[in-house]
């Protein structure tokens, strides 16, 4: 156990603290259950596994024999985003949050539709550990990652020098530009089963880990 009294560790949520694919499947299950659409979860999940993104709900409806109905699709999208997800912190994430962060200030910065991100934060119980949670959608559509605004909000709340911040996230396409611009340390977590696990880690990211058990060996370098 390490004392991180002068450090702020800031986490992404999706595929960093839990697997986003679990949220996806939970949403498909909620749609089938709440709308009485037999076979929908299985059809939508197979499409997801096949790499379909964006129009999964439309295509799953076709698979189960439903005619295209834009009003129904809007209802299903709303259900997906607003359902209480059946998700849990991964064991390494829970272990680190419960036992390894002594003294550290903890925060989250996360992208995505606001209702869905709020539901994830609640289901994962993140407020237990992270008093500062910034959802970019609450700031405005123009402030999604990699914009620096959400990271600046964390800095205003926690008041440390830039070199005392470390952002831990999974998506090399958008997660690291903002914190890097502010002079923060960056750690890419490349989880097996993560939606972006096949993407290479950019050279400007400070470190790469495969789970949070490895986090401590690199956090000490930001002290």
Radius of gyration: 18 Å
Which descriptor suits the 3D outline? elongated
Q: Please count the beta strands (DSSP E, at least 2 residues each).
A: 6
CATH superfamily of the largest domain: HAD superfamily/HAD-like
Estimate the mean pLDDT confidence.
94
- Helicity, as a percent range: 40-55%
Number of domains: 2
Largest sheet: 6 strands, parallel
CATH names the topology of the largest domain as: Rossmann fold
* Unreliable spans: none
State the assembly state of the protein chains. single chain
Distance between the termini: 15 Å
- CATH class category name of the largest domain: Alpha Beta
> Helix and strand succession?
EHHHHHEHEHHEHEEH
Count of DSSP-assigned helices: 10
CATH architecture of the largest domain: 3-Layer(aba) Sandwich
- SSE-based structural type: alpha/beta
Question: Can you offer a commentary on this structure?
Answer:
The chain is an alpha/beta fold and 223 residues long. It folds into 2 domains: 8-19 and 87-222, 3-Layer(aba) Sandwich (Rossmann fold); 21-82, no CATH class. It has 10 helices and 6 strands, in the order βαααααβαβααβαββα. It has helices spanning 20-35, 40-49, 56-63, 70-82, 91-99, 114-124, 136-139, 149-158, 177-181, 216-219, and strands at 8-11, 105-110, 132-135, 165-169, 185-189, 207-209. It has a 6-stranded parallel beta sheet, with helices on both faces. Helix 9 (177-181) links the parallel strand 4 and strand 5. The chain is elongated, with a radius of gyration of 18 Å. The protein starts with 7 loop residues before the first strand and ends with a helix.
């Amino acid at each position: 156990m390490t004392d991180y009294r002068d450090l702020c560790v800031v986490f992404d949520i999706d595929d960093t603290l839990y697997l986003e694919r679990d949220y996806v499947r939970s949403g498909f299950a909620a749609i089938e259950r709440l709308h009485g659409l037999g076979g929908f979860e299985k059809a939508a999940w197979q499409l997801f596994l096949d790499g379909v993104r964006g129009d999964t709900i439309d295509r799953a409806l076709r698979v189960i024999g439903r005619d295209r109905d834009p009003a129904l699709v809007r209802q299903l999208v709303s259900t997906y985003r607003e359902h209480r997800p059946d998700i849990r912190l991964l064991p390494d994430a829970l272990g680190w949050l419960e036992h390894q962060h002594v003294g550290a200030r903890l925060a989250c910065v996360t992208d995505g539709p606001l209702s869905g991100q709020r539901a994830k934060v609640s289901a994962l119980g993140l407020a237990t550990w992270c008093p500062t949670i910034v959802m970019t959608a609450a700031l405005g559509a123009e402030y999604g990652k990699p914009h620096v605004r959400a990271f600046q909000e964390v800095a205003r709340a926690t008041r440390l020098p830039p070199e005392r911040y470390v952002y831990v996230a999974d998506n090399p396409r958008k997660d690291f530009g903002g914190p890097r611009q502010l002079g923060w340390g960056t750690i890419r977590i490349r989880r097996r089963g993560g939606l972006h696990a096949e993407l290479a880690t950019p050279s400007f990211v400070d470190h790469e880990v495969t789970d949070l058990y490895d986090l401590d060996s690199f956090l000490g370098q930001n002290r």
